[in-house]
Write a structure and sequence with these properties.
- This protein is mainly β.
- It has two domains: about 50 residues, no CATH class; about 210 residues, Sandwich (Immunoglobulin-like).
- Strands 8-14-13-10-11 form a five-stranded mixed sheet, with no helix packed on it. Strands 4, 16, 19 and 20 form a four-stranded mixed sheet that branches. Strands 15-5-17-18 form a four-stranded antiparallel sheet, with no helix packed on it.
- It is globular, with a radius of gyration of 29 Å.
- The protein starts with 15 loop residues before the first strand and ends with a strand.
- Bound molecules: copper (II) ion.
- Copper (II) ion (CU) binds next to loops.
Length: about 280
């Protein structure tokens, strides 16, 4: 019988009487034939099967990667936003003021030279029940210079939010959700105290955190029931990773500039989508 050709998995195709030290047998694995003891034959068979299974798993992993791609793009602002406001109570505060060289300003519109807009929450609309929040890394929010950093962020339902205090000042972390199912908490946080951890079970847009000690301190965290979202950076860019191919409505939402949507199609090569938010003058 001729040995089979090709294939990653070995098959024991022929055993002939050829007594050896262990009652050896002549056998073939794919293109190779051996004359070796039965114990080695079994070992080789196991190895070939293992390698074969590994190969199949590797191929499956590659196939899965090919079935998910990234959505990338940039959000820009059309129109001139109102000037930011100096937060004079912060600068005048005896403990927080010295933490800043200049007078801090509000962060309503963080806009680049070509209108690139930061702090825009970009997401795939209407996708629920897909959260992987319990197994992803926590979002970290710091309190530094008596401000929340970042100012705008997003998490999945069930994803941990770790709040730190890098200030030599006591803060009070007070989340104020509006969606039923999300809990309001109000906890003091001493300088050098342990981090506080928050999680939210229900989707919500711009869930507000505030500090009751410092009334200018706010952060906004959008909560999604899927991993398909991103927040634009200072250059207005975003990337929503590992999206299965298909047609979606992409939504860009900014606290002040409003919302814009765009119909997109994600292929194996991903999708590129730029969005423009227009200010009503
Ligand atoms: Cu505070």
């Amino acid at each position: 019988m001729a040995p089979p050709s090709g294939g990653g998995v070995g098959f024991l195709i022929q055993v002939k009487g050829n007594p050896g030290a262990e009652g050896g047998r002549f056998a073939c694995f794919a293109e190779e034939c051996y004359s070796c003891p039965v114990s080695q034959l079994i070992e080789r068979l196991n190895m070939k099967l293992t390698l074969g299974v590994s190969g199949v798993l590797a191929a499956l992993a590659t196939w899965n990667l090919a079935l998910a791609a990234d959505i990338t793009g940039t959000v820009t602002l059309k129109g001139t936003p109102p000037p930011e406001v100096e937060i004079t109570p912060l600068k005048n505060d005896p403990t927080c003021g010295p933490l800043h060289k200049d007078v801090p300003k509000t962060r309503f519109y963080v806009v680049g030279p070509k209108g690139e807009l930061a702090d825009v929450v970009v997401s795939l609309k209407g996708i629920t029940g897909k959260s992987t929040g319990a197994s992803v890394a926590p979002l970290v929010i710091d309190q530094k210079g008596c401000e929340y950093l970042p100012y705008v962020a997003a998490v999945q339902t069930g994803q941990k939010i770790d709040v730190k205090n890098s200030d030599p000042v006591m803060h009070n972390v007070h989340d104020t959700p509006t969606a039923s199912g999300n809990k309001e908490r109000n906890q003091a946080m001493l300088p050098g105290g342990p981090d506080l951890t928050f999680t939210f079970d229900a989707p919500e847009e711009f869930l507000r955190f505030k500090c009751d000690v410092h009334p200018w301190m706010f952060a906004y965290v959008s909560v999604f029931d899927s991993p398909y979202f991103a927040v634009t950076g200072a250059d207005g860019s975003f990337k929503i990773a590992n999206v299965p191919p298909g047609k979606y409505t992409l939504e860009a939402r900014h606290r002040k500039a409003g919302t814009v949507t765009k119909e997109i199609e994600v292929t194996d090569n991903g999708a590129q989508a730029d969005l423009v938010l227009e200010l009503k003058q």
